[in-house]
Design goal:
This protein is of the alpha/beta class and 292 residues long. It has 2 domains: 18-88 and 272-287, no CATH class; 94-269, Nucleotidyltransferase, domain 5 (2-Layer Sandwich), CATH 3.30.420. The chain has 11 helices and 7 strands. It has helices at residues 18-21, 23-41, 61-74, 85-91, 134-152, 157-166, 171-180, 182-198, 202-225, 246-259, 272-287; strands at 50-54, 79-83, 98-103, 107-112, 118-122, 234-238, 264-267. The strands form 2 sheets. A 5-stranded mixed sheet has the order 5-4-3-6-7, with helices on both faces. It has a two-stranded parallel ribbon with strand order 1-2. α4 (85-91) crosses α11 (272-287), α7 (171-180) packs across α8 and α9 packs parallel to α10 (246-259). It is globular, with a radius of gyration of 21 Å. The protein starts with 17 loop residues before the first helix and ends in a 5-residue tail after the last helix. The relative contact order is 0.15.
């Protein structure tokens, strides 16, 4: 992004949550993403004046410090801001009371009250939370299909689709991958469940309804703590689960509308990555720097 907020280039790279994939993988992904956009925009690294990195897992002070230090080495003359992905999403919302529900690999919500008090709910990772996220949906789907196969001796239609998508011959292979690389396995099952739900698979419907209940519960908890239940506020959805299944989207919207009839429900008005660029420009204005 240049100083006029014109987007010069965009890229997409691998995961960037240090608590899930480790710092080495995060730094590799960030460097790859930077290299891609610099090449597309025909911009030299030395000309970059500001960077905002909004990453999951950086709410822990030591994680943010380590990411900042690594970026400072790659961009030594650059002003750098580190924040969480949740903070980035909330910054993209209009002024006033607001809540953002993040439904991706994990799940979380962040909100702002009328007096600008900011709170969050969820986002504790797969071992302690993330209910309703893609990881959780994939895990529940595999458990359901394994139990169906155990009871009947045959794979359910959803089970067959999952095995085909994962390119494994049977459930022994799935169990081995779950033991060795659950972070990769479980989220990859969500698109299969999403497609099956849109094709009227009843098992997929039940799994996604449970996910909607968990996600809506995050918002209800947060709205209660922010005293937003009986007020008008903006409520946005974001994350990789949104827009993947008509059934899931409609169920989530219906649940949120029923709980918050006065809320304005929709998607983020601008993408988190574009908001990162705008925050980087704000940082430059505050420090008197200029450039791309």
């Amino acid at each position: 992004m240049d100083e006029t907020q014109k987007i010069l280039a965009q890229s997409r790279t691998g995961p960037s949550n240090p608590t899930r994939v480790g710092f080495d993988a995060v730094l590799k992904a960030l460097k790859e993403g930077a290299k891609l956009v610099l090449t597309q925009a025909k911009v030299e690294p030395e000309s970059i004046a500001g960077i905002c990195a909004g990453l999951a897992g950086t709410g822990r002070l030591e994680a943010g410090v380590q990411i900042r230090a690594a970026l400072a080495v790659a961009f030594p003359r650059t002003v750098i801001k580190i924040c969480t992905d949740l903070e980035l999403a909330l910054a993209a919302m209009p002024d006033g009371p607001a809540i953002v529900l993040v439904a991706g690999t994990g799940s979380a919500a962040i909100g702002r009250s009328a007096d600008r008090n900011t709170l969050r709910a969820g986002g504790f990772g797969p071992l302690l939370g993330d209910e309703g996220g893609a990881y959780d949906v994939g895990r529940r789907a595999l458990i359901t299909c394994l139990r169906d196969q155990e009871r009947s001796g045959a794979d359910s239609p959803l089970g067959k689709q999952i095995l085909r998508q994962l390119s494994v011959a049977g459930w022994v292979g799935v169990q081995e991958r779950a033991r060795t690389n659950a972070d990769d396995l479980f989220p990859r099952v969500f698109p299969v469940v999403a497609a099956a739900a849109d094709a009227d698979d009843k098992t997929a419907h039940a799994i996604l309804r449970d996910a909607v209940k968990e996600l809506a519960g995050l918002v209800k908890d947060l709205a209660g703590r922010l005293s937003l239940h009986d007020t008008r506020f903006h409520l946005a959805k974001t994350g990789g689960m949104i827009g993947r299944s008509a059934f899931f989207d409609s169920q989530l919207d219906d649940s949120l509308r029923a709980a918050f009839p006065r809320a304005k429900i929709g998607l983020l008005p601008i993408s988190p990555v574009e908001m990162a660029g705008r925050l980087a420009l704000q940082l430059l204005s505050a420090t008197g720097a200029a450039g791309n």
